[in-house]
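Quick note —
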Amino acid sequence: MVKAMRMLDGPLEVARLNQSGSLKFFLSTLAENQHVQWKGGIDTLPYMSQVSETKLLKETMTFDLSRLPSEVHSRVVHTSNKKMFNLGEAVTVNIILYDAFRRPLHRGGDVLTVSMDGQNGSSSAGQIIDHHNGSYTGMLRAMWTGSCTIVVNILCTRESLAMTYQLINAFRTSMNLTCVFELDSLREITLGYPSTVPFSGKKLCNLTAENYGLPWFCVRPTTPGLLCSDWTKVSTLSYEKFPSFKDNILEQVYLIGKVKRMFKSKVHLTVKSEQGETMRASTWCSRRDFLYTWSAASPIGFFHKRRWQPALCTYPTDDTALKHCLSNRRLLMFGDSTVRQMFSYIHTTLNMTFVTMNWVGKKWHRYTEAERKDSNFQMSWSPHGLPLYFFESGRGVARPVHVAIDEVPAGSRDIVLIHLYAHFQYHHPRVVRNNLRLVARSVTHLLQRAPDVVVAIKGPHSFGLKNRFIGGYWGPTYVDIIKDEFSGLYDKVAYLNYWDMSVALHLDDVHPDAYGVEKMTQMFLGYACTESFHPQH
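Predicted structure written out below.
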């Protein structure tokens, strides 16, 4: 068995990588130190070097479908002639984008993913470096032995990303939320949004106070007898989708650019070892490792024989260990339907009983509590605040996360999971940033009054396009926002890098399948229960 890679002396900082020849030096260092653990500094390489919003807003929308990156003609090639690699060795590939007429593209900004796939369900994610000239570098590591294939996917084109920024800046949202006003038999539905910008010239209800201090505005109802104070619900049952394209070709450019497409070109290699068939982390996870969850380079783990092998540190995933960890505790889960899936997995695995109303169907949109009395374990799931696209629901359902966190009492030993992602994708990224800023502030105060609380934030996951407006392309942007807003909490909060795991799983749906939910939940509980799992306990 190959032991965990040892730590490099000193952090691998972005500043080093920006120096002349620094990328070559970085890659050669990884290749020479096959047993180097990727516990770098906080400022390690980003997943994707993105083009700024300012530049994308100035771009001219293209009407030429043939100019989009082609998954058929784009190429991924090895940086050397090697076909055989040692276990743990760094593997780098060059990725070159071509259009439908085999013309090379000379701009960056596309959202790509790269992964290494092997036999027996083996897979891992790599990092992408954008050179802003139509070429990219894929950085991977050989984590298991045998035959492997390197696969590249186009997740979103630069053209589609530019159009998204331009359209949501024009309309402010790509799917409307509506406000429902009701009093006795009176009812009226109007548009709502966390800004006044889309409502130029309209009379508005400022419902920010009712939304716990987060901006929220609705067009004032015109029905006689209905007032702003009669706001009762938010709804997506009566909405108009934006953007509305007048040109069919322009719409195709926008939509095709957001469809996940796999390169026809692939790289094949073989990994050998005389010491074991996989890399393995030999250290036990502890709260000290929270710091490294924010900076660890890909892959943060890998799948082998249908099992997730964490690369940073190890933790058990069996039910007995989880029951021991969760005894005499509360687990508070805040987020969307993907967090609800995790709640459901724990509920089923631990045979828990609903305290609140039993779920009617899988799409349950209300606050839920469950318990296991024999171990004194309580668990709750709360939908995050607006924007929330849960058909039609009472305004009290969409309670902002920071409000609930502020209610956790001093001295608590609760475990807290936070996730803001899919429902915010219809809006400009500043909306999720505003929410996360308040969440980070509340978490800071929580850890001051209850230092034994364990907090984890669930990062975005990669997935393909399943409908007109939502896709995993916002992932790298949201990662940057989360890391920025939580920059003072790296050593106190665990960051759950589900981007790596979902790229390795090749997820297509925003809702992971049962296997994906199981592995995501186990990663979360693995970090949340580090002290309980530690051998000294």
